[in-house]
């Protein structure tokens, strides 16, 4: 596989290392495709299908005001996302 096709493949996925950022995206309905567990068992990379909408959601999550409607989520859905992603970390579900 040549360098360009590897680069294009990597652009198809957004990689997030923060559990809570990943939970936010998951709660917003973005598709989680993989959880890459790193050699340091306390860390992982969450991989989502990349899109303009996802990039906008990430920008809003990182830079919007706390009470901005773009970053508000249902707390129950967020708690469910935390449980599901932690479960994925501790088991081989991806």
UniProtKB/TrEMBL annotation:
Domain of life (superkingdom): Bacteria
Xref: Pfam families: DUF5659
InterPro entries in the record: DUF5659
Residue ranges occupied by any DUF5659 domain in the UniProt entry: 12-90
Protein known as: DUF5659 domain-containing protein
Organism field: Candidatus Daviesbacteria bacterium RIFCSPHIGHO2_02_FULL_36_13
């Amino acid at each position: 596989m040549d360098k360009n096709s590897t680069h294009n493949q990597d652009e198809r996925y957004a990689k997030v290392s923060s559990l809570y950022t990943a939970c936010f995206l998951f709660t917003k309905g973005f598709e989680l495709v993989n959880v890459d567990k790193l050699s340091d068992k306390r860390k992982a990379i969450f991989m989502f299908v990349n899109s303009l909408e996802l990039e906008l959601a990430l920008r809003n999550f990182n830079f919007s005001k706390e009470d901005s409607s773009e970053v508000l989520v249902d707390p129950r859905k967020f708690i469910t996302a935390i449980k599901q992603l932690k479960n994925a970390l501790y088991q081989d579900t991806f």
